[in-house]
Amino acid sequence: MGGTLVRPEPVATTGQVAEVLGISLEEARALMGRSAKRRLVTPQDLAHELADGFGRPGLTGPLTEVLERAWCRAEDPQLYPDVADTLAVLRRRGFDLYAMTNALGSSVPEQEPEVFQKLLDTVFYSARTGAIKPEPEAFAAVQRVSGLRPQELLHVGDSLNADVHGAAAVGWNTAWVDRHHTTEPLTPVMSAPRLHSLVSLPPLLPLKAATTGTIASEVAG
Fold it and tell me: Is 175 helix (H, G, I), strand (E, B) or coil?
């Protein structure tokens, strides 16, 4: 959820793991994407797996600290100031609201945080669906639960690849949340609006949702 709904740490969990293991961020992302983001696992067990996998059991302690902090943050997510009011507006208009996240299995809370219970219908964790964005199956999980067709869904997220391109590839409507005002352009084939705040989203949508209508927001892990 980091970057769209939740304020991320200066260095994401995967980046912190990379620092402890002494590998590049790209290597850590690939490593986590192969397994740790596709299944539920405790912080302690994942720390042991990573340390043993690199033949460095002495790193189990530092890795456990990183992963347990991430789990605690997931239990008490810190939302951006524009999130609660924007989602409340969309809820009043009749939109279903889902969140999707490529979260480490060690960061999935045992119970949905109260703030998400109030604001969202469901959170789709990659560790539970077994698929990570931009894989089509990650988006298909939302379609199955919502019962909606791709053209009836809007995905709002901060990653051009995982969110905008991934959702567009399966026929969803998309919007790009660019909170940092980057200079990176959308590709010519993408017509997604660029939002610098979620406050800009409601004016782009109908005053009332259609009989079926859903907004899925990215929650990057």
Answer: strand
